Amino acid sequence: MAKAGIDTNMFKPHSSRHASTSCALRQGVHIDAIRRSAGWSQDSQTFARFYNRPLVEKDNYLTSVLNLLSSET
After folding, report:
1. In the chain, how many domains are there?
2. How far apart are CA 26 and CA 41, in angstroms?
3. Position 66 in a domain
4. Best exposed site among 5, 47, 67, 71 by fewest CB in 10 Å?
5. Is residue 26 part of a domain?
6. Is the pTM of this model over 0.70?
7. Rounded distance, CA 45 to CA 57, Å?
8. Domain residues for 28?
9. Are the C-beta atoms of 39 and 49 separated by less than 8 Å?
10. Is there a domain that residue 8 lies in?
11. Keywords on this record (predicted)?
12. In 10 A of CB 2, how many CB atoms?
């Protein structure tokens, strides 16, 4: 993460799960699809309670992680 320019004092590896699921929702992915992909049950409130967070644009965290993931495919 540090090599990608991500502030590892602020963000940890699990932050990518928060960022990717929050970004998916903002891009119009249905909440049920997000739950299935994350392994949460249909009735799970985990995303709503813990994961649906504001994205930090100024640190480019989300962009860095998604660019890393897309370069691996």
Report:
1. 1
2. 20
3. yes
4. 71
5. yes
6. no
7. 25
8. 13-71
9. no
10. no
11. DNA recombination
12. 8
